[in-house]
Design a protein that fits this description.
The structure holds two protein chains of two kinds.
Chain A: E1 5-10, H1 14-25, E2 30-33, H2 42-50, H3 123-127, H4 137-151, H5 157-160, H6 181-191, E3 208-209, H7 244-252, E4 256-258, E5 261-268, E6 274-281, E7 286-289, E8 291-296, H8 299-310, E9 328-334, E10 347-351, E11 366-371, H9 381-388, H10 394-407, E12 408-415, E13 424-431, E14 437-442, H11 447-465, E15 516-518, H12 533-552
Parallel strand pairs in A: 1-2, 1-8, 2-4, 8-15
Antiparallel strand pairs in A: 3-10, 5-6, 6-7, 9-12, 10-11, 11-12, 13-14
Helix pairs in contact in A: 1-7, 1-12, 4-12, 9-10
Chain B: H1 2-13, H2 20-34, H3 36-48, H4 56-65, H5 68-83, E1 85-88, E2 91-94, H6 97-101, H7 104-108
Helix pairs in contact in B: 1-2, 3-4, 3-5
The chains are: A alpha/beta, B mainly alpha.
Bound molecules: flavin-adenine dinucleotide and iron/sulfur cluster (SF4).
Chain lengths: 555, 130
Amino acid sequence: MDNNYDVIIIGAGVAGALIADKLSAAGRRVLILEAGETGRARVELVGSYLTAAAQTLGSPYKVVPKPLKNMAPSPDGTNDYYDQPDGTHNPMVFKSTYERRVGGSTWHWLGNCPRLLPNDFKSFSLYGFGKDWPIGYDDLEPWYCQAEKELGVSGDHEGLNGLFGAKRSAPFPMNRIWPSYSDLKVAEALACSANLWSEYNDEPLVLLSTPQARNSAPYDGRPVCTGNSSCVPICPVGAKYDGAVHVDKAVANKARLSEKSIVTKITAAPDGKITGVTFIDWDGNPHTVSARLYVLAANAIESPKLLLLSGIANTSDQVGRNLMDHPQGEGLCVSAEPLFPFRGPPTTSGIDKFRDGAFRKDFCAFRMSMGNDGGGRTQSPQAILGQLLQTDFGTQMRSKLRFKVTRQFRISFLAEMKPLPANRVTLSPLLDDALIPRPKLSFTIDDYTMKGFDRIAEVMKSILLTLGTRFDDLVLPDHTTPFLAAGHIMGTCRMGSDPHDSVVDADCRCHDHGNLFIAGGSVFPTGGTANPTLTIAALSLRLADRLERELKQPS
Amino acid sequence: MEDDFLKLSSILTGFEPLDAKLGRLYYLEVKKAAGAQLTLLLETYKTHVIGQPGNPEDLIRACIWNVQDLRTLSQAIINLWYTAILNFGAVSWIAPPEAYFDSLLWKAIEAHPPAISGGYFGYWRYPPEN
Ligand SMILES: Cc1cc2nc3c(=O)[nH]c(=O)nc-3n(C[C@H](O)[C@H](O)[C@H](O)COP(=O)(O)OP(=O)(O)OC[C@H]3O[C@@H](n4cnc5c(N)ncnc54)[C@H](O)[C@@H]3O)c2cc1C
Ligand code: SF4
């Protein structure tokens, strides 16, 4: 492999792919090293999903035929890859997973694309927790607009412009995804129930269209969403964005994609300059490559793992710390009227009202999303069928099934958690098939978020009651319920202006290594209540711009 | 036997008519999994339900649903038609994707199986047509 690269990018997820596309479009020589494979075509992945015995997030993506050694394993549960306490007995474990393949974890993401709010960047100075970002909303705003264009986000510009001070300088590239029938019914019910939330202020709650990377019109050569409702774990038609879109663009621009290439070490000279990276292919052969600049974009678990393995970038002792997710939970009810779930995308609207406010001094902010998927992750229609079959069959069973499932309604919340130094990724003594240490995870959620769970349950309850549900049919989360994972892995190489307590600077450049940059959720000092990928994309586009400027300087 | 399987399936599932091709596939699979049990189930159905006076669902409740073994098999058959998965005894069989597309669970709730298009962009804004 030649070494004449301007930039080597580690990881072909959305973060790495966007940077590869921008730099290769500018004529830069780019090498992408990706641990996973391109793998089978979308239609075959869908086939595997349909016929999987257990339809997990990972079920479309297993390598076929099953290799003797799984060289780039992806977690598909709490303990199959991560080294941490057993998740079946211990609710306080890290539950989010990722996909190691070309295109990365956006293959199985949902596609929700809200922006962070201006105050999310200042949580320490405003609310006394976490750490302020070294950049603010205004620094990122133009990049948010560009990220929405690159990913193809459908959204309601008027509805969201100015949300908690978040000005939008450009409309979304596509109109919003249409709300579901159930969204319209819920909005109607809420409009008649002002004053229920007077603690926060007494305006009625409104549903806002969730911005989402899913086409409301043909866009960027990809088709319109036709409501297949299987976005997680796979969109059968490609109406939902995934990172492979920009990998393909980068390759068309002559970037070199080296798949099945697992980076095992980044080497630094005594002066801090990175001199090369070592990777092994799926046959176990080692290779070394070098470039002028390096971008680590392997996600917020694999990136810190690789830095720890390499023994670099860690004079602050912050590498791997402050691991965050957005703890989630669901509330369910059986509405008085049918809402007809399982038609269209799994969620199309949300409630943004609780994403900011003075209460953040005491407990966590949260965003709620309205489900179009019946009992969500708590109660599947198959489970309801199973229950009914205990007593009923025939037309009676059929009509009871219809009655319950068409009326089932789910609200989820996604909560902010504090960055805690003890929540961290370290190296496990356990090795994977490629003989690389697996990530060892320590994770807990503190009272700040737990306290919020109870408040969230109160809000959920009042919303669900507007739908005329019976008390018996209410299922509510509280601080005793195990939380669910969002898949939003953040915080393990945080950005900051002080090299003593952060890993990268405001430009995502490692304090310790002038030619090494980090892209992805790992650089987030705090997580706010926005699903992270749009912010990851905005930061990546901004980083690509910085890299291009740097490459214009003589080396 | 195959015909009786389809007719009985129809009453058990509450759907009429059922797809005969799928019925054949399912009949063969259930036969593999349940053998003599299936014969007994279909014999019971033939003797006590077909041509007998009264509502077939009531007759089935009396002679099949209230008999533990026959009920277990009937539950597995209903589940198969509804989800395209057969779980009976030690057998766990997943039908090919075409069967999943036709699984009755989604029809019963007026939706469509996930991963298959429900129609045009935005159809989810309206209630189902029937
Ligand atoms: C179920 C689920 C739903 C989600 N829904 C949403 C949502 O609605 N909205 C949202 O914003 N986010 C969502 N997410 C999160 C989203 O998927 C991630 O934020 C996003 O994919 C991160 O992109 P990335 O490029 O940083 O990392 P990844 O997509 O994980 O890509 C990293 C890449 O690096 C590669 N890599 C790792 N280690 C190495 C190595 N040693 N050498 C070479 N390559 C390596 C990996 O193989 C991978 O391809 C969801 C996640 C899950 C699991
Ligand atoms: S609803 Fe269906 S078509 Fe639309 S993005 Fe999701 S999987 Fe793709």
